[in-house]
Amino acid sequence: MEVEFKELASDPNLVAKVKNFHKSTDDINNHLKLATNPEFYEKLSNSDKLKYNLLMSYSLNTLFWMYLRLEGEDPMKHEIKSENERLKQYMARAKQIKDRNTIMPRVNREVAQRFVRSGLWECRSDKDKSKGMKGPRKNTT
Fold first, then answer.
1. Are 68 and 80 a contacting pair, CB within 8 Å?
2. DSSP assignment of 54-112, as one string?
């Protein structure tokens, strides 16, 4: 779609800005079409669906924020500000959950069993049993 500037065509700065704005809105429209494809969403894992939903919500709120600015309204006085704050809290919580699952140290069970097994003591013979002496267990692995 080509924009007609008529008498404003003599201002190259304005023409460049309007064309850039038009191209940007087309790009946003194309990204939204791609992002709202249901086949794409079904292939995602649960954690990826969570990230996707948060990203889409935040993106749409940001687009509405820009719309309010274009209309001359102050978005700081609109309820969209509190909605964006709520989404930021959800994003922080999702990051905490991800970090807890990835950074948290895990115990290698086989290695721990070998440590415990090698640290245990057994009686060596019947003589030692009567004296109550214990010696190191023989390693069977």
1. yes
2. HHHHHHHHHHHHHHHHHTT--GGGSTHHHHHHHHHHHHHHHHHHHHHHHHS----HHHH
8 Å CB contact between 62 and 70: no
Burial category of 91 from C-beta neighbours within 10 Å (exposed 0-12, middle 13-18, buried 19 and up): middle
% helix / strand / coil in the chain, to the nearest 5? 75, 5, 25
At 92, is the pLDDT very low, low, confident or very high (cuts 50, 70, 90)? very high
- pLDDT at residue 89 in the model: 93
Q: How far is CA 135 from its chain centroid?
A: 53
> What pLDDT, on a 0 to 100 scale, did the predictor assign at position 135?
53
- CA dist 66 and 28 (Å) reads 13
Task: For residue 62, give the nearest of 73, 75, 71, 52 by alpha carbon.
Answer: 75
Element at 3 (helix H, strand E): none
